[in-house]
Amino acid sequence: MAYLEMRGITKRFPGVVAIDHVDFSVEEGEIHALVGENGAGKTTLMRILYGMESPDEGIIRLGGRAVRIPNPQAAIRLGIGMVHQHFQLVPSFTTLENIVLNREPRRGPLLDRQHARRALGTLIERLGLEVDLSARVSELSVGERQRVEILKLLYRNARLIILDEPTTVLTLQETHALFGMLRRLKEEGRTIIFISHRLSEVMEIADRVTVLRRGRVVGVRSVASTDERELARMMVGEVIAVARQTGHSLENAPPALIVRDVTLAEIPGRLSLKSLSFEVRRGEILGVAGVEGNGQQELVELLAGLRFPQKGQILLDGKDITFMDVRGRRRHGLAVIPPDRLQEGLSLPAPVWANLIATRYHLPPFSHLGFLNRALIQSYAAQLIQKFEVMVPSIDAPTLTLSGGNLQRLIIAREVSTPPRVLIAAHPTRGLDMRATQAIRKLLLELADQGTAVLLISTDIDELLALADRLLVLHRGEIVGFLPISQADPESLGLLMAGRRLERRG
Questions:
Q1: Between 142-155 and 113-127, two packed helices, what is the crossing angle to 10 degrees?
Q2: Three-class SS of residue 475?
Q3: Distance CA 293, CA 39 (A)
Q4: Average pLDDT of 209-229?
């Protein structure tokens, strides 16, 4: 008998059937992968299991008995825990406070911090992650916030563990450490549901795989009896990989972005950037590699105009923008795909059309004398949605109704509707399925071919190797090496990312 059985699960939203009579079962003590495109229904199915959504039809059995899970508190009481793809943390609380929230060890009416630190210290050591328990979540990088979510789950000692894209923001080494922990949890008899778009990870860690497509189960496979190609075909059909065409020359291309000896002063909880110097030529994709939390976020904020350097100079097409504000930089041709699309890229409650003009609503022809031209804006938004293939219920729908892939397409449509001179693309495919990932990578290549200078910041080494012309590596806020793509490989990048300096070669 399966430890978890979900039979005939159906969930309808206005205008769409998200889950259509899905049967899903997991054996006790197995690691079961759940795969599918963005919007295939994976997260909706798991939100039902965790009590965040109520099914319209179907039954759930846990340990052989039917259960009702009206809310996450009921799920936790049943021994079900979930790490969400999008963080469920309180930014103003410390790491420790977030992890023990609602499960606080107490000394009288007060939080027993010493007891909590001892308990969390054991978990941190087992997982092999470095976490500052005193830091406020608002001060943490995206990768560090993900680690807090994982620790929060393990602290609650869940018997059935749901991990929704848990490795998206982890390094290769951190992913290996996580997998080691999952295997130890499996040996203890815990049951794990692992959602991932990375089929190589699925093949490495899972025992069985369930594939969803458009809200329905299209197959269940043992990992031992399948491969990545079959799983990919089941998910989306054949996917053609994209990569930078070799042979194009950038030697004579003028620089579009120049960063000269820039230093960014350290603020509490954030890294400093130390004497950064690099340039990005027109038509070039310069990749920025590095372990998450080594200055990537600070670099984006510096170039976008959210923070100003202590010294140094930034030039955009020869124009000094070192102390120019965000609006001025955009006016001179800078566009930014931010690293966190939910917190930094979009207003989720706002309608789709509002997000598409968020960076230019104040400019003609969208506004005149302080009044928006709604008819023109609606027409413009409809054109962008069609051009960039953003799947939306309507342009008036709240943006929060879109899937992760469509949220990213929405941001990209806004940022590159008019090809920018310089595009800062920070983790542009993070958390996306294969089809959405390939579409966005293809778009970045097309922009570069049109002459846009692209600074691609990514922790996905395969992505950097496929798209970039050159690579620079950040470590603790410093550039530790440059590599032309012809000399780059995972091993040399790994050494640089660990802080080993190489001579500048590009």
A1: 110
A2: strand
A3: 29
A4: 93
The dihedrals phi and psi of 301, each to the nearest 5 degrees, come to -65, -40
pTM beyond 0.90: the answer is no
Q: Which residues, listed in sequence order, are joined to residue 83 by a DSSP beta bridge?
A: 163
How would you class 20 by CB atoms within 10 Å of its CB: exposed for 0-12, middle for 13-18, buried for 19 or more?
A: middle
Per-residue model confidence as pLDDT tens digits over 40-57: 889 899 999 999 999 999
Out of 82-91, 406-415, 452-461, least confident range: 82-91
Cβ-proximal residues to 317 (8 Å cutoff; 6+ apart), any chain: 256, 332, 333, 421, 422
| Residue 86 in tokens | 């999008």
Task: Give 398's DSSP letter.
Answer: B
Taking the C-alpha atoms of residue 238 and residue 300, their distance in angstroms, rounded to an integer, is 34
Residue 257 clears pLDDT 50, i.e. is over it:
yes
Round to whole Å and give the CA distance between 504 and 481. 6
> What residue has token string 């860690």?
205
Q: Are 296 and 246 in contact (CB under 8 A)?
A: no
Q: Which residues pair with 481 in a beta bridge?
A: 473
DSSP-derived 3-state class of residue 213: strand
> What is the identity of the amino acid at 132?
D
- For 362, residues 6+ apart whose C-beta sits below 8 A from its C-beta are none
User: At 60, which amino acid appears?
Assistant: I
Asked if residue 365 has a cis previous peptide bond (ω within 30° of 0), the answer is yes
More confident call, 13 vs 243:
13
